[in-house]
Amino acid sequence: MFCVAESDLRFRLTETLLCEERDYSAYLGSAGELYGSPLTKLTSLTADEHFLLFGGLCDLAAVSKQLCSQVSNQVS
What we know:
Elements: H1 4-42, H2 47-54, H3 57-75
Helix pairs in contact: 1-2, 1-3
């Protein structure tokens, strides 16, 4: 059985993880908009190079959102 202080520490750490993961997910989502589109227009990136740089961000953001959802459900 866990003592109250130990469980509170775990809860706070979990909340911190959730907050940071939400921020990370938001940053991933906006990276393509902030950098991907302008780089395509302003530089000589090919479609393949653009995909190599920014193609995985959507998938990574989706996994991050899924993790947030799962952690949030466990905390609630």
